[in-house]
Amino acid sequence: MSGDGLAFAVVFEIAFALGAGATKGFTGLWPSVLTLLAAAGGTFTLGRALTTLDVGVGYTLWTGLGSVGTVVLGAVTYREEITVPKLFSFAAITAGAVTLKLAAGA
Questions:
Q1: For 2-11, what is the mean pLDDT?
Q2: Is the dihedral of CA 38, 18, 14, 97 positive or negative?
């Protein structure tokens, strides 16, 4: 469950982050329930993926790709602005994650 499991973990991470914005401080029942389920799903699938990936590589990919996905989908969902500094940050995160994965031979 290395690559596939990590991909699911990233999707759950993005759902968790976007869901947290929809909970209104965890005062809305169903958005809160879905957000907590996404957090649990992300933690579970990350843990499964880490059985075949180095912890540093897996965690970095999970948080990095989750961050990029959250900003991109946050722009779509919540109409947040994507600025030039954000674009450079995406590139740096992506390059760092890819380089780390290649360096680990994963």
A1: 86
A2: negative
Handedness of CA 90, 92, 96, 99 (dihedral sign): positive
Domain that holds residue 25: 3-104
Residue 96: how many CA atoms within 13 Å on its side-chain side?
Answer: 17
- The full length of the chain comes to 106
Between 16 and 57, the more confident residue is 16
Q: What are phi and psi of 2, to 5 degrees?
A: -75, -75
Name the pTM for this structure: 0.85
- Average pLDDT score over residue span 47-59: 91
Number of domains in the chain: 1
Looking at residue 61, what DSSP letter applies?
H
Neighbours of 67 (CB within 10 A): 18
Does 2 score more than 70 pLDDT?
no
For the record, the structure tokens of 94 come out as 């992506």
How many helices (DSSP H) and strands (DSSP E) are in the chain? Answer: 4, 0
